[in-house]
Amino acid sequence: MGCTAHDVIVALRSAAAVVAEHRDELIRLDRAIGDADHGENMDRGFRAVVAKVDTAAPETPGAVLKLTATVLISTVGGASGPLYGTAFLRAAAAVSDVTELDGPTVAKALRAGMEGVIARGRAATGDKTMVDALAPAVEAAKSAAEAGEGPAKVLSVAADAAHQGAQATEPLVARKGRASYLGERSAGHIDPGARSTALILSAIAETARSRQ
């Protein structure tokens, strides 16, 4: 069973709810090594996404992803808006105008999104950024898709890998972004962008599983 535009919209509503639930946690994580605004910015951005997709009613998954990108870029402050916006924009381009997403297409979208983040933020794995959550998620999704799994399973293993990747940022010394200014003092804290990435993927995966 593939994921339609409606399924993607439902998944985004779930992602918005999870971001709202973890808003304070993301603020705390960002306070330790950043500007303390990640939770607030992400909450505002995803609330705006839900409001927009509900009124615009885009007809394909790609159109939903493109609209999400536009809203996030215009409403999320700091570096997160351009990074998340670019991820969704690249994902939208990757899925093009297909009406349903299958497992391989989901994996392709995740990879395109990660490549967009890398291009925009010039970060690599080990830099203590959202890439540390995205990279293992992309690899897990690729393996699941190649094994013939559908969207729900592809997203599920990607989310699990993203959580492990986010947790693994705790001992790292940041090499990109505001956290890099702290040098060795950035170690001992989970990267807020990696954490929000894992939370969002988990919400989307849970929605996909429930709609199988």
TrEMBL record:
Residues 6-206 form the DhaL domain. The lineage of its organism: Bacteria, Bacillati, Actinomycetota, Actinomycetes, Pseudonocardiales. PANTHER family: TRIOKINASE/FMN CYCLASE (PTHR28629), TRIOKINASE_FMN CYCLASE (PTHR28629:SF4). Its EC number is 2.7.1.121. InterPro entries: DhaK_L_YcgS, DhaL_dom, DhaL_dom_sf, Dihydroxyacetone_Kinase. Keywords: Kinase, Transferase. It comes from Saccharopolyspora rosea. Gene3D superfamilies: 1.25.40.340. It holds the Pfam family Dak2. GO terms for molecular function: phosphoenolpyruvate-glycerone phosphotransferase activity. It is an enzyme of class 2 (transferase). It comes from the Bacteria. The gene is dhaL. This is Dihydroxyacetone kinase subunit DhaL.
